[in-house]
Amino acid sequence: MVAGAGSGKTTSLIKGLAAILAIHGERLRLRRQRVACITYTEIAAGEIWTDVGNNPLVHVSTIHSFLWSIARGFQQDIAAWVANRIDERIGELRHAATNFGPRVQQKTRDKNARDIVRYEQQCEAITRVRTFTYGTGSDYAKGILGHDDIIKMASQLMIHRPLFRTLVAQQFPFVFVDESQDTFPVIVEALMAVQQQEQARFCLGFFGDPMQRIYPTGIGTIPKPNGWRAIPKPENFRSPTAVLSLANAIRRDGDNLVQVGGRKKKEGEEAVPVVGTARLFVLPTDAHRDERVAQVRAWVAKANDDEMWQPAAKNDPVKMLVIVHRMAAKRLGFGDLYGALNDKAPDAFKNGFLDATAWPLRSLVSFLLPLAEAVRDGRDFDAMRLLRLHSPLLVKANLQGVNVAERLNQLQAVSNQISELMGPESQATIRDVLMLAKKSLLVAFDPRLSAYLEDIAENEPETEENENGEAEEEEDPSNEINSMSAFFACPANQLRPYQAYVNEGSPFSTQQGVKGAEFDRVLVVLDDDEGTHVQFSYEKYFGLKQPSAKDKKTLEAGGETGIERTRRLFYVCCTRARQDLLVVLFVADPAAAIAHIRGLGLFPEANILSQDALS
Ligand SMILES: Nc1ncnc2c1ncn2[C@@H]1O[C@H](COP(=O)(O)OP(=O)(O)OP(=O)(O)O)[C@@H](O)[C@H]1O
């Protein structure tokens, strides 16, 4: 099912699941089979499972847990895969070492050498591992596979082992994949291999929209082999007429998909279209952005005769979506964190910063920060739940012969210390928090993080600044090291405002975290960060700024530039609105920008407004 935003893909998926249960439920139960529904995040999984009445015949999960639930029984294959993976890594590191040019810094060479030693030790250690498990970060020596390993390992098993394919189909004769545009290509290949082998015994369905792909690792368009049925859904049920025209106009320069309809509301017996509003304000980039956004909101409140648009400090009825950039990060209180994981940082860090999935952040954001907050608020139950979920100190195998009361006291003491270090007034750095967690064995760290904690000495001077600001140069092996040392030096209390942004104002969490998110009033703030953002550029998207030399090279090579990525993100943001949409674009020269944007046919001319409208 390939269809635009608000066309009811998720609604259809849930109806499809219900229909399968009604038609095949009894047979599935007897054969101990289940229906798998793969979603992007745990939150989305929870929501879909609630929608199907928490039916145990439906296994709703992320791709990782789905794959692990099938692969975990194949321990011998896993062990062989891990041994091979370590060899591969050592080979890659040695290859890199022999190809280091004269400009590569000594610390990069040292790290390479230490990493080789670590992998060689792991190679030895895995022979003693009895059972491999799946955790947040991979630690082969302890028998733990991480997220990336599960994807690589299980898809390989699926692609190369007929028996494994049969097993998948036997356990899960129906597999639905939601948000299929953001699925890894190798997973699509693997699932298609199962379908090819099992034919009518295996029903596979993808639900998605290539224009809503927001992760660079996603496949976008799913290939359609012969014999597959495409299910079109041409109607839009969410957007008011004004937003629907904009959505169609955004796609006109992309894949040209046109949706019809739009949201309707009942008036007596009749269903009438909701007209709604879609406006663009183009305002000057200066130090008064917040005030200007507030002024625009007051203006819309008046124009729409809707007080809900007035600026609100709490429980804001307007959903505001911003792509964070340096200025916003500074204002929100996590400027250093932004700098560490964005300036001259590896692409994986920059991408993972947008939704807090970058590996340096994971244990902090998913465990240590929530733990610190639970302790501070006196939510003992939550603290305990987090510890049980994340701490190896409470794993059954590690509690044998241990005085449990003592262990709990010890955990409480460490949790209190972590909470203090991460408190708003604390002067502690991220490194301090991580060191304490490491020393006290509070959490099993991703070995990449452990390695850096061992390697990067305290107060290590940061290397040369990125002078030109344009982070468009090639990836340099020392980027990761520099990023990590800046990351360790960040104040730990910047994590809280960062997490609040990711949970509330980030279009990424909105898109992926809350399935099919929709809001009555949406405010999208577009604000390029003085040209340092390479992933997204609204100025380039609107044609206010020329593509760079690198963009042109990428296009010539058939690659994709930030312009396409920005179009898709803009589409996702705008199509969340059920009633009114307000877009605020900050640029250096609003008058020129307005003249240009009027010619694009995105917004009606009368709805492209400037500062003048506010005075
Ligand atoms: N057949 C229908 N009739 C009326 N309303 C519908 C219908 N199908 C879906 N809707 C409503 O339209 C809205 C969008 O539906 P849904 O979230 O399923 O779309 P989607 O295609 O998954 O959207 P997106 O791609 O933007 O996540 C929801 O409010 C849903 O209740």
Automatic annotation (TrEMBL):
Annotated Gene Ontology cellular component terms: cytosol
Alphabetical keyword list: ATP-binding, Helicase, Hydrolase, Nucleotide-binding
GO molecular function ontology, one term from the record: hydrolase activity
Keyword ATP-binding: yes
GO biological process: recombinational repair
Domain of life: Bacteria
UniProt region (Disordered), positions on chain: 457-479
Residues covered by the UvrD-like helicase ATP-binding domain: 1-253
Residues reported in the UniProt entry to bind ATP: 3-10
Record field: compositional bias (Acidic residues): 457-478
Pfam families in UniProt: AAA_19
Name this protein carries in UniProt: ATP-dependent helicase
